[in-house]
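User: Predict the complex.
Assistant: Input components as received:
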Amino acid sequence: MRNIKLTIQYDGSRYKGWQKLGNEDNTIQGKIEKVLRELTGEEIELIASGRTDAGVHAYNQIANFHTNSKILNKEILTYCYKYLPSDIVIKSLQEVANDFHSRYLAKKKIYIYKIYNGTFHDVFSRKYSYHVPEQLNIEIMKKAATIFIGKHDFKSFTALKSKKKSTIREIYSIDIVKKDNDIQIALNGNGFLHKMVRIIVGTLIQAGLEKITIEEIIEIMHKKDRSLASDTAPAHGLFLKEIIY
Amino acid sequence: MRNIKLTIQYDGSRYKGWQKLGNEDNTIQGKIEKVLRELTGEEIELIASGRTDAGVHAYNQIANFHTNSKILNKEILTYCYKYLPSDIVIKSLQEVANDFHSRYLAKKKIYIYKIYNGTFHDVFSRKYSYHVPEQLNIEIMKKAATIFIGKHDFKSFTALKSKKKSTIREIYSIDIVKKDNDIQIALNGNGFLHKMVRIIVGTLIQAGLEKITIEEIIEIMHKKDRSLASDTAPAHGLFLKEIIY
């Protein structure tokens, strides 16, 4: 049995997210499994590093699958490139040890959130960047970001409803860079809860607009109540950048 | 009578180009004139620095129009932003002297052509960059570009059919920059004939693929025969960058 690891780039705009939902076809997982099934004649089950929500993009999503097929790696890659829609590309493919697991073995995840901070939106990035027309104060955003660094209970910053699962995660760094009207927020952590990146970014935006203070964010973190935190920033600005094993 | 100058950004993907064609609505000029007509109650005629072909994009197209309307500049801008489709944005607006003419007074034009030179296409730039999968030799492309610098008869490098009009133009510079898989070609000249930028880029690509030599390009230039030059590079990689007055 072979274990094959894929590095996948996708434009999430027209998909309901990574995870296959019943018979529905408009998910990234569904599209790739279909092509692999047609190629190998086997039922393929892709294991990804994690789900991405509807509309979220990926530069380097990682997924693996097991197969008995003897088709050459290069042929799998070429076939996928030919038959996948143009908004999903398998960039590379490697045969890995049988116990490699994309989700369980992921050590760090890096997400990028893009904001366009100009009066009018930019036509070329309008599908890949969140347009905030009011001037954002970057220095305050950077200060607010430090609150999230380290090991914390992110219960106030997730849409996760389960009461059983741990909401403790560690964020290693949040880097905010501004170039002209483009702002990029890079978040590096050992894992992120459901919608956690987008709720943190929503909070940083409120801080940058000076609608919430540093002290208020600290208080929200301590109260562990999602209803207190800011709105979730929209999906189209979010990119899964890298998974580190 | 006021003369108003517009700086316009557009994603040309879904349009038949700048120029209005009879009753057809799917042109950039047609879209903007319609919104200005609704706002002012006047028949507005936009004069652009030049036409862009179907599928070609613009960062800073310049156009002007005359109006008797007394509506404030800021209100015109806000109204256009609200009612234009999201792939056309009027970035700024200025009142100019009555004799300002976007086309006649243009001194220099800068175009950018973008190429993605990776084995597989990039999903995020696929609509804004021409994908060339075979490795391009940038040094040869740079050498080939020098042939076009200066004042030349570009008859071999235009789709222009008229025999009466001059096909002599001057190109001041062609800068080719490669960063990872992205190649940008910036062309700066006093004017460009119909499809001239895309035929020159098509020729530079053939040179980069080593399918045509420097000597052959020089010969094609001398023979003044369009049928000898390379194919026209596709529209979706081309951006009108700047007009200098």
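The mean pLDDT of chain B is 95.
Let me know if you want any component modeled separately.
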